[in-house]
Every structure is written in C-alpha cells, then in structure tokens.
User: Fold this.
Amino acid sequence: MQIGEITNALENWAPLSLQEDYDNSGLLVGSPNTICTGVLCSLDCTEAVIDEAIEKGCNLIVSHHPIIFKGLKQFDENSYVARTVLKAIQHNIALYAIHTNLDNLIEGVNKTLADRLHLENRRILMPKPGIKDQQGKEIGSGLIGELPLVTDASEFLEWIKEKLNLTVIKHTAFTGNQLKTIALCGGSGSFLIEAAKTHKADCYITSDLKYHDYFEADGRLILMDIGHWESEQWVSELIIAHLTAKFPTFAVLQSLVCTQPITYFK
Assistant:
C-alpha cells in the first residue's frame, strides 16, 4: 500500500480545504508514492516519536499538530523542529498532519471530549456559513450539547477531573446556576467565548486561556481551562479508529510517547 492511499483516506474524512488559512495540514515530508511499512499516530511529532517510528518499522507518522507550522529558514541543531524534520528525512519517514480540518468536523477532535462527557444534542458552536461535510453536517469551530442530567458546578468539576484524567482545572467563579448546556473546544479556544455566551452555555471548556480572557465570563458562564494536551489527548485514538476501519489488516499503531511538554508541581 502506498502512503498516498492512507493520506487520501484521511483527506476524504477531513478534507484539506476545511483547514484554517493559518494552518499547515497535509503531507509535510515524504512522497505519496512510497510504499508504507506502517503508520504511527500521535498528537505531536517530536524527535522521540521519530525514534519510536524507526524502532517499530513505521515510515509514516500521522500527527494532529503539524511539526512544520511557521516558516523554516534553516535546518540546524538549534531548533527542535529542524532536528525532528531532518531525522525524519534521514530515515525516510513521511510526516502527515491532520489539524484544523479535523477540528472543524463535528465527529472530529471535539467528539473525543463530548463522548467522555456524554453530551447529547450536539451541534457546532460556530458554524461556517454555507459549508457542510460529506454527510451534510455543519462544519465549524467548537461544539455545544447538553448533559444527560442537570448538575451542580462543584460536582461537575470533580466529574470532569475524573473523566478527563486531569491534575488541575483553572476556572472562573461559579455562577450559582445548575449546569446543563456545555460548550467545548479542544485546543486553543478563547476565540469562542462570545459564541458560548450567545448560545447560553452554562460552562465553556477549552484551553490556553489568557488572564484577561477569564474576565469575559462576566458572570454569565463558567470558563474552564483544562490544558491543551489534556483537551486533545484522545485525538490519536480517533485517527487510529478511522484508519483501522478503512484498512483493518494494515499496521496502524498508537504512539506510546507522551508529548505533553508541561509538568505540574503538586
């Protein structure tokens, strides 16, 4: 099987045309005509993930985050990006990223969080006008849905901490209201705070919020920052599930490298 057959399956699922203008999804290193010896899936592509692919005999790495995001002006040992890309090239390993095009699907990145929170009546939080996926579903940023039962805020935080395997949750003050409608966005989602308020979400779960973002809650909802890696930690499993359904007899492996760059002192 050629690498292009695998990337075509990914792009039929999450077309590159759905990625944001600033993004760099797609085949970043390698040729689609190369015979694939195995696929390794990871949230991030790092040197350690390259080493793992070499050890496992995989010559295609599919990651959510693109290792090449900003322009590379030189390849030297002072940049972890350049070192990672050079190692991939030296060992004939192709690198593919499926990023905001997967974010924008209702069955994409945000599904991995919504499933664990048992959200019902799911819809896109900020749809792109006039754009649908191949099944006719809305395309866009974030997701909103309802919990099966109304819950107390403190109990909800305890439940989220357990369900999402969290060490810490940063959040705004409780509003005093019971929680039912939950908005969420895996990865950086401060740009959706207003949308969450417009849709009358009781809580908005995302990551990478800055200090002044928290003031935007304005007592109308609870803002939660659960961490970037934490909010996307199951994306590689989603990719694996899709590829194994398409190619049930082919080697599609889960990376065992934890690419979380942040350590919490407890």
About this structure: The chain has two domains: 3-102+234-254, 104-232. The first strand starts at residue 26 and ends at 29. The mean pLDDT is 96.
